[in-house]
Amino acid sequence: MGTLHLALSGASTTPEETAPDLVRLLQGRGWQVTVLCTPTGTRFHDLDELEALTGEPVRVDFRRPGTGRSLPPPDAVLACPWSFNSTNKTALGITDTFAVALVCEMIGRGVPTFLVPKAGDGLSGHPAWNRGLRLLEEVPHVTLLRGPARGFPGWRQVADALAGEPTP
Predict the structure, then answer these.
(1) Residue 20 in contact with residue 53, Cβ under 8 Å?
(2) In a domain, 168, yes or no
């Protein structure tokens, strides 16, 4: 499939479908996955397991110029799960964390970007949530992935969308 940047945030997954499960599924479909994470997201996801799966450390912080390696250019970006905070920052272009900055930059470069927004009932009722989603829906190469009744989709639905396959 190509190179995929998976950006994680401070939104939880289910015990049945964790971020490492998503990485395994995507790798099984041929993606070379690089994982990035917001600082808050480090408390929600097993970074050690993600590093073991990808062979690369999870990128959390901006690197200083002249240090470390650049990320491989992605064929696609998947921000999943993407919290209320990260979704709204992405919609407004607020790049104060590395993961959000990378997603915003790739949107600006026209890289196909898939966002799986996730907010609890209270936050999803806030007017900024729908405003941010509408802004993101206007970008031609950005796809918002939602599950039934605009809920959180399963990993198979996410992987199918990345492959351009219709989901039943």
Answers:
(1) yes
(2) no
- Say how many domains are in the chain: 1
Query: Is the pTM higher than 0.85?
Result: yes
Question: Which among 74, 73, 103 is positioned nearest to 86, based on CA atoms?
Answer: 103
Q: Compute the distance between CA of residue 157 and CA of residue 167 in angstroms, rounded to an integer.
A: 6
Amino acid in the structure at residue 168: P
Q: pLDDT of 109-142, one tens digit each?
A: 999 999 999 998 889 899 999 999 999 999 999 9
In a domain, 167, yes or no: no
CATH number, position 101: 3.40.50.1950
Phi, psi (rounded to 5 degrees) for 142: -105, 130
Find where tokens 């998976």 sit.
Answer: 6
Domain hosting 107: range is 2-162
